[in-house]
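Think of the structure tokens as a kind of shorthand, similar to the way a musician reads notation: each symbol stands for something richer, in this case the local conformation of the backbone. In the example below we present two proteins back to back. Begin with the first one, reading the sequence and then the tokens, and try to describe in your own words what changes along the chain.
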Amino acid sequence: MNIASFDSVAAILVIPIGSAALLAVLPGYRLTARLNVVASLATFLSALSLFVIERPPPGPYVLVDDLNIVFIVLNTFVGFTTSIFSASYIAHELEAGRLTPVYLRFYHAMYQTMMFGMNLAFVSNNIGLMWVAVEIATLTTVLMVGIYRTHAALEAAWKYFILGSVGIAFALFGTILVYMAARPVMGEGQDGMVWTLLIQHAANFDPALLNVAFIFLLLGYGTKVGLAPLHAWLPDAHAEGPTPISAVLSGLLLNVALYALLRFKILLAANPAAIAPGPLMVTMGLVSLLFAAFMLYRRRDIKRLFAYSSIEHMGIIVFAFGMGGPLANFAGLLHMVMHSLTKSAIFYAVGHISQIKGTQRISRIRGLTATHPALGWGLVTGVVAIAGLPPLGIFMSEFLVVSSTFARQPLLAIVLVFGLLLAFGALTLRLTSVAFGEPRGSTKSAEASYVPMFAHLSLVLIAGLYLPAPLVTWFQHVARLLG
């Protein structure tokens, strides 16, 4: 293995977990917040280096390929920008007395542990280790959701823990069934858990076991993705936890479970006698889209509103990957990236807005563009982007999803467009009341860093106007890998 490639992969894992241990013992908010940012930046730079160095060959535990680099780079970038946002956001929470210094030390340590878990899930070549990594990331976010120690926050954390545990148990059972399907062909031992070896022999596995395994995996990891009707934990976790965790949940953690699901989809597709995973994913994707679109009209809490928007967009992404084919897979990848960047930017804006106004109730927030132009217009841009309007990047990905579906399944395309228009109407209705009109609530100035929000929105705008040829070629290659 190339030394540089080994160092980069090791750094993606060692930096977060090492920083977590250090942050757990260091006193002082300013020091730990800065260390959190530095560690996140170092992890992001290590991920970027995977583009320019020779990749390590697949081993029994580690895999770096074109598919997971998409997720790793996106994960570390949003993790870095969220750490910057978190520094100013959490400082306000400390001043307001909502958090104590002891909990803040815990918060930063858990943040880096969460990044470690997600990065480990992405680079794992062992399906058992990937399951463990997803569980690490889940448990750390459960602890962070309940960090305010209010009744509502603890209730949300417990709901997340219970439903997440059920989901991860289903995913574990599905993983065991995959191993059982592989054992007669590959023998006992860890080879039956190594994804690159599994994919080579998948055509010879018992299709009946694979079919049952994928059902459990879809239900298990689908719970983590936030697909309806397995979504019940997600709105509460967004609404009651710290806003940086809402940004990470929507922008990153949902992608971790999606990545695991895609790996098993590829595995199932390699066995010609197994069921096609596509129709199952298409069904759950459409159900999630339609359910979330209707529920958006009933939200009164601004963070819950965007939590249901995340369910909607994960439904679109799962639908696109379920449709399969080069164009739909390309659209799914692009939509995943655009959603992560846009939704995290929206939560950056919403976090500071809720601190200024002292509430998350939509009815108590009015006239933001007049009282706080940077935050107000940032939120407007984010909602315009997430609603799928041109010239922003989500319009491009949604257009590709719809056009590829019209070419192959016109009836499904009609349902898809109906869901998109329904969600668009709800988001527009809420946006006009929050951003415009007679100002309501506090007008005090915001002590916030707008760099993360506008950096994300700028990338989304650029992607809507122009995608560099190397990026398009890379995504096309990954789309072919997905089948």
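Once you have a description of the first chain, move to the second and do the same.
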Amino acid sequence: MFVMELSYTAPIEAVEELMDAHIAWLDGYYAAGIFLASGRKVPRDGGVILAGGVSRAEIEKIATEDPFTVSGVCAYRITEFIATKTSADLSTVRENPVA
């Protein structure tokens, strides 16, 4: 599983101009079952996406497709982790670590 942390690198006005395209991009990966949750950080200097079911290389490629990335208004920090315990709603993405 991945935590995709976005940090804005441009004024919020530039980010807002791209919000509809960013939401459409998010919707596509929700529909594909890759994105699990997303939202704005507080304070509003970026956002966070939880994702799963793909490799590190795939998630890095997905981040490059974000209209925010394409337009240069954000930078991504991607952290991979093994979700060994989850709520019942996320049980399908729970992982068993290999010893």
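Compare your description with these statements about the second chain. The helical segments are 12-17, 19-31, 56-65, 67-70.
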